[in-house]
Write a structure and sequence with these properties.
The chain is globular, with a radius of gyration of 21 Å. It has helices spanning about 15-25, 30-50, 55-65, 110-115, 125-130, 190-195, 205-210, 225-230, 240-245, 260-265, 285-290, 295-305, 310-330, 340, 345-350, 370-390; strands at about 5-10, 70-75, 85, 90-95, 95-105, 120-125, 160-165, 165-170, 175-180, 180-185, 215-220, 235-240, 255-260, 270, 280, 280-285, 330-335. Strands 10, 11, 12, 13, 14, 15 and 17 form a seven-stranded mixed sheet that branches. A six-stranded mixed sheet has the order 4-5-1-6-16-7. It has 16 helices and 17 strands. The chain has about 400 residues and is an alpha/beta fold.
Length: about 400
């Protein structure tokens, strides 16, 4: 039996990325009233979740009466692992294209592409690295998503088409800011007094932790990523890194995804140095299927994935850095310069150079138009500095 949709795209079942992506579809002209109904129900789903299946099913019954696109799943991110209503799937028309958006666990998007079960997905670099390290020449070099395609070594069709540039209102800047995050070393303030320099980019502090056998808290899904970069670290897998640090002895540290820093401020914790890597919502596609499927090409083009050095993304990077800088204040120790965080010298050598969807395998060439690529990078950094100074 043939499906009645042209393209399938996986997104998270709940949460900010799911909500931001559906709002993005509204901008593209998809039925806004249906999306508003879905979003309203999704926002109620957390409070309506329950450890009792029958209790959780009552909200599912209500949701299904409003619009038939929901199902129950186990919310494994919460301690008691309750049953929760989440987005299952719905079909829309985008111009002449019939698309099915399907809800899935965030980290499964790339796996479904690898299994040839979907055409594309909205996935963060953190989730992508967790599931696809095997395909990379050296996963520790991929500190920004613009380096991912370049570092693919083993055969796979998984490629990043570009940033989804999903935004959300940020009260610190009082405007929409892109969903960028950093994978930071976090700690209690007193830890800083014991170390003259804490900077992940220079490896010194984490290597010192490994040498001393000091434990580092990290969420289970990120253990593999950290272990690949720092195999000698004594990693402790926990559900909540901030709480583990707060409840532990003074010297404890952790590695955690940070977007706005609100939770850290509330719990009296600090950011240390540069992040291990940066992440944001990305459009991930089966490249070989894309090359053979004109409908998939049309869909991706309508989504308008942004390149790492796109002007609008540069502006959003400045907004994200400014928002985090203003929110954390002195609680961001050894704060990196915005230009170095965006792209340093070694990043360019490791593949962080401009490429387009017309570029073969969506990755920069080591010899083709090198001077032009470096000129674009330098121009991007000048523009980033201008945005930073203008909105500071």
């Amino acid at each position: 039996m043939q499906s009645n949709f042209d393209i399938s795209c996986a997104v998270p079942r709940t949460g900010r990325t799911f909500e931001n992506f559906l709002n993005r579809l509204k901008i593209l002209g998809i039925n806004s009233s249906e999306i508003d109904t879905i979003l309203a129900i999704s926002k109620q789903s957390k409070s309506a979740s329950h450890t009792d299946f029958h209790q959780a099913s009552k909200f599912l019954h209500y949701a299904s009466q409003q619009i038939p696109c929901f199902g129950l799943f186990i919310d494994r991110k919460r301690q008691h692992r309750p049953y929760r209503v989440g987005f299952l799937g719905y079909e829309w028309k985008l111009g002449d294209i019939s698309i099915r958006i399907e809800g899935e666990e965030p980290h499964n998007g790339s796996s479904l592409i690898r299994l040839d079960e979907i055409d594309c997905a909205v996935v963060g670099l953190d989730e992508l690295l967790t599931m696809t390290q095997y395909y990379l020449h050296n996963p520790t070099l991929v500190t920004k998503w613009g380096m991912y395609n370049y570092n693919i070594e083993k055969p796979t069709g998984i490629r990043i088409a570009g940033s989804a540039q999903l935004t959300r209102y940020n009260p610190v800047l009082k405007q929409n800011v892109q969903d960028m995050v950093g994978f930071f070393l976090i700690s209690k303030p007193k830890v800083v007094k014991k170390a003259k320099t804490i900077d992940i980019k220079n490896n010194a502090f984490l290597n010192n932790l490994a040498k001393n056998g000091q434990r580092v808290f990290v969420k289970g899904r990120y253990v593999g990523i950290v272990k690949a970069a720092y195999p000698d670290l004594k990693l402790i897998s926990v559900e909540d890194v901030e709480d583990a640090i707060t409840e532990s002895e003074v010297g404890s540290v952790g590695l955690e995804i940070v977007q706005t820093g609100n939770t850290l401020r509330r719990k009296g914790l600090v950011l240390n140095g540069s992040p291990l890597f940066l992440s944001e919502s990305l459009y991930v596609v089966d490249y070989y299927r894309y090359m053979k499927n004109s409908v998939l090409q049309t869909f991706i083009n309508k989504l308008e994935p942004k390149s790492y050095f796109d002007q609008s993304r540069i502006k959003q990077f400045a907004f994200w850095y400014l928002a985090l800088e203003k929110n954390m204040g002195d609680a961001w120790i050894n704060k990196p310069n915005i230009l170095d965080l965006f792209c340093d010298t070694f990043d360019s050598e490791n593949g962080l150079r401009p490429y387009r969807l017309q570029t073969r395998h969506w990755k920069p060439h080591d010899f083709y138009k090198q001077d032009e690529a470096i000129a674009q990078i330098n121009a991007a950094k000048v523009k980033l500095q201008d945005y930073y100074q203008t909105y500071k």
